[in-house]
């Protein structure tokens, strides 16, 4: 799939969502594999079945990455969502170009701060944001907050309910990747009221709403 950010590529099917870049992207993530990385050229979101219980998550992701021909450090996620149904939303403005890629399975929703700690059930919302900008670290954290708020708002708009009957805020195993090209203007803030944060929020909200149609 052609993306409107120079050097950025995307393919997805029933096995995986694979995003890669000709040049290293600067990343912040909560990924299963590669969460310690600050730069990578590959983000892999691997489909697993409900009830997946292999404790060697890293081994499975590393093996699949080798199948894709990836021999360098990568960011790796897992999802029970149908990866062939990944939602790709593009938002553009003078401030930046933002791409949001989401995979959504809300079969086990929770409400943060309400739902009791319990065994993790297979259900995941994974969000990958790529922005053609330069970010300072604080803005990168802002972007995580903005994307999470937009995700939860979309779930509320769709009246998704947690086990207690109140609104759901997500699932127990949601994950996020914020990636930037480090080209162009430097952004020191990416909260939802900033030009860049607005693009991120719009992209994520649209992607989650579309997935829940």
Descriptive account of the structure:
The model has no long low-confidence stretch (mean pLDDT 95). This protein has one domain (8-211): L-amino peptidase D-ALA esterase/amidase, CATH 3.60.70. It contains three helices and twelve strands. The protein has helices at residues 57-67, 137-157, 195-211, and strands at residues 8-12, 16-29, 39-47, 75-79, 87-93, 96-104, 109-110, 125-131, 134-135, 170-171, 175-180, 186-187.
In short:
The protein is an alpha/beta fold and 213 residues long.
SSE topology:
Elements: E1 8-12, E2 16-29, E3 39-47, H1 57-67, E4 75-79, E5 87-93, E6 96-104, E7 109-110, E8 125-131, E9 134-135, H2 137-157, E10 170-171, E11 175-180, E12 186-187, H3 195-211
Parallel strand pairs: 3-4, 8-11, 9-12
Antiparallel strand pairs: 1-2, 2-3, 2-11, 5-6, 6-8, 7-10
Helix pairs in contact: 2-3
CATH topology tier name: L-amino peptidase D-ALA esterase/amidase
In helices, the fraction of residues equals 10-25%
Shape: globular
Give the helix/strand class. alpha/beta
What key phrases describe this protein's structure?
213 residues; alpha/beta; L-amino peptidase D-ALA esterase/amidase; 8-stranded mixed β-sheet; two-stranded antiparallel ribbon; 3 helices; 12 strands; 33% strand; globular
